[in-house]
Amino acid sequence: MTYYADLTPYAYGGDTDTLRYGRSCVRYRPEYERRNIGWLSAEHPFERGPVPDWFAGAVLDAIGNPSVNTYRGLHDCEFCPPGEGIITDPRPGGSYLAYHEIRVPAGPGVMFAAPSLVWHYVTAHEYRPPAEFIEAVRRYDAGWATQPGPWIPADAERLF
User: What are the residue boundaries of the structural domains of the chain, listed by start?
Assistant: First the structure.
């Protein structure tokens, strides 16, 4: 997995985002700042500690709701033993977690960008994201990507 320190400017996927809803996609150049969360690597230490009881479930709800930048590559968890690092969504019909990203609105003009493995890092490896991300996940509303508003520009390319 590519490593980026938490809260640094996002650079992994370039200057566009693609949101996937079933068979439909929206591709656009974000007009907001994206900040990294949870781009962990075994070569770099990370914050560990407890998170609120509700947090892991809330992060799981954000995964795939919508899927962002799908198929950036399938990544094994570097912290799991060899052969056990391909992580799947624990929900019925869940797919691999390590091939797309999530977005979580942080506040006006700022969006958190995380790999979908962030849920696994929290639940299996005691990763403790920054407080700002925890609070943003508490307020998460998937409508950010479907309702008219500041997140999706009017000139977004819609693909069906």
Answer: 17-159
